[in-house]
Amino acid sequence: MAPERPAAAPRAGGESALVRAVEMSLAPPQAGAGRRPRGGMVLDSGDAAIPLDRVPYFTGDLKRLGVTAVVMIALLIIAAVTVIPQVVK
Asked: Considering the entire predicted model, what is its pTM?
């Protein structure tokens, strides 16, 4: 015969801790109980745009992107004029 299992010990905090956690998660937020962001910095909600003068390398990257786009368009035109007619023949 198998030995009897002892009754399961009650969890620390009991069932009331679980019930309390669920109640707290379902409760509506209270006024003034909001969390502060890390670092204590509060952002102004007026304008969410990032000022471009504070973004490093933005204008340089934008110029590089423009040059790359012009080169790609030039390569497409050259290929359309010279390479594609040779392949079609």
From this structure: 0.41
Question: pLDDT per position in the chain (89 positions), as tens?
Answer: 666 766 656 555 567 777 777 777 777 766 555 555 566 666 666 777 888 778 888 889 999 999 999 999 999 999 999 988 888 88
CA distances from 27 to 19, 23, 30, 72 (A): 12, 6, 9, 57
Listed by start position, the domains of the chain span 56-89
Question: From residue 89, how far is each of 32, 78, 79, 83 by CA, in Å?
Answer: 76, 17, 15, 10
DSSP letter for 46, please.
S
